[in-house]
Amino acid sequence: MSKNRVAAYITAYKDYAAVNQCIQAIRQQTYKVSAIFVLDNSPVSLLDNTDSSIIVSHHPTNIGIGEGLRIAIQWAISQGYDFLWTFDQDSVPTANCLDTLLETYEKLSGDNYKIGIIAPTPIDKRTNEVVEGAVYNCDRFIAYKHNSKVGFYECDAPITSGSLISLSVAKNISLPRGDLFIDGIDLDYGLRLRQQGFKNLIVPSAIMYHNFGQPIKVKFLNKEIFVHKYSALRHYYICRNHTYLSTRYAKGWYKLTSCLRRLKFLIRTLAFILMYDSEERVIKIWACLLGTFYGLKGKLGKTWQ
Known about the structure:
Elements: E1 6-12, H1 16-27, E2 35-40, E3 54-58, H2 64-78, E4 83-88, E5 91-93, H3 97-108, E6 115-124, E7 129-130, E8 134-136, E9 141-143, E10 153-155, E11 164-166, H4 167-170, H5 185-195, E12 199-210, E13 214-220, E14 223-229, H6 232-249, H7 254-276, H8 281-297
Parallel strand pairs: 1-2, 1-4, 2-3, 6-12
Antiparallel strand pairs: 4-11, 5-12, 6-7, 6-11, 8-9, 10-12, 13-14
Helix pairs in contact: 6-7, 6-8, 7-8
């Protein structure tokens, strides 16, 4: 396997223990990264610059995940790296994860099969569930069922955390959208890569442990299931960005069905909050309503107060 220069990137926010655990897992990879770029959105910086292998960019006003990815990709391209390995702070790749991703990339990539993103399988240890990638199906994004029996499979958008981005490909499309702030940045960026003819892959044998949301166990129709509890801020951006992206990517009559599906999602989310979430219930309901309205209207940016 030819030697590729890989930089890692972490979006950090108010949790030094999680950031440090992610850094240590990256450092323990059997395939060594050349540098770790940390964009720290915390009010007070979590890290100092005493370690020359870690580059810290502090943004106390919190510029969000989308803008952070823009900055990181631009930095990695300017430094001549071949790949950027992107992480949320609450992710821990296994020691051979990067090696496995690069080996698979080398086997598959060619003139007739150009890979934009190659990603591991994210597993939430708290629920033992795979955090699935997504595909865009006519009028909405849906989860793409994980297949552990193959060497790799394609999807439109792996989750941001763990994604190994080919920087030679990244030069060919516009950068991730900063105006989405948080949530849905991976859906938009991955789908745009696919629309330009590049492949986005998930490799089942490459494993990353990732904390996805705040899972709680509830009883529904006499069955115990895991659902995710979110802050009002997250509810707002989930409703806004997913509504915006789903309806904007829809074509023709699917624009109408996309709007209807987003209203259905809104009703289901409000029902969940009323049934299972007693914390800040009123503000969370308002966040979902406002987010959906702004998503339909196309009002983006850092707009939640």
